[in-house]
Amino acid sequence: MGRVESEKAMKPKERAIAALELREPPEGLVPTFELEFQLTQELLGKEYHKGNAWRGVTRAERDRMLHENAELLVEVGERLDYCILMDTCSPDVEGHIETARLIKELSGDRFLVIVHGDATYAIPDGNHMVEYALWFAEKPDEAKRVADERVTAALERGRRLVDGGIDGFALCADYCLNSGPFLSPRMFSEFVTPFLARLVAGYREMGAYVIKHTDGNIMPILDQLVSCRPHAIHSIDTQAAEMDLRVIKEKIGKEVCLIGGVQCGLLQTGTEEEIIANCRYALEHGMPGGGYIYSTSNVAFKGLPLERYLLVLEMRQKYGWYGTPPDAAGAA
């Protein structure tokens, strides 16, 4: 089988799995996806059904809405060449399972399908930071008991989802600010790490893939995150202090897949030249040896100019190749 035929035969899902499992990267484009692509109206003139839209609908309306969401996820995935589709809009476990079934029916199992699955303590909102800090300090045993109960509930839910066809989970509790983690590394090791490790191990035992997302400067807790054995860490938020994709790749790139590196802040306010330089840096330092999925440092968010995000994908098309790009081979 020739190279072109081989690339066509390999599904994006298989490219994602190769990266998540730290295999030698297959020839072709580096895999890409976003936890959320919120610019569907700008790209395709359509929106997902989500939130309050599910309230009070009939069974027939619900079925239609789930089908339309699945169709839109597949359309986005095919248009933007994603390897992973994340369903963030279904209203419940049954909705996620039905959406996954529909995606695979529509796409021929072309994509890895994931959903939210975290249960660990994230940074509390501004109204509860002091309350949480006092709780951890004054009632540590209670905080740990609650953390354990949350993991148990998440794994019970996870089993239903995996049995229903979900391929993996994105764990989206944010731990860090741009300056560093909300909890000190010592407190993090007490109130988060053991429970994150149990959660990841439980999902892995089910055969699910696990992507751990957190924004901010994760360097003070990076070793703890890696020790929990997620398949990947997202989003390598390079606008935070100390976050350099090159350094992180050198430090842990043989232990865990890295996802991200393209700064959302630059996409919003940077010049085109700054965006191009950032994208090229991410590809240059993320790709070597595989174990890398190209994406933004958060999501393709509502309000981001579509042309800025398409520029990110254009840079992938130019500089994101393992092996010889087809155009270059043809020119030769």
Summarize the structure.
This protein is α/β, with parallel strands linked by helices and 332 residues long.
Structural summary, described in words:
This protein is an alpha/beta fold. The protein has one domain (11-324): TIM Barrel, CATH 3.20.20.210. Helix content is 50%, strand content 12%. The chain is built from 15 helices and 11 strands. The strands form 3 sheets. Strands 2-3-4-7-8-9-10 form a 7-stranded parallel sheet, with helices on both faces. A two-stranded antiparallel sheet has the order 1-11. A two-stranded antiparallel ribbon has the order 5-6. Helix 11 links the parallel strand 8 and strand 9. It is globular, with a radius of gyration of 20 Å. Mean pLDDT is 95; it is low at 1-7.
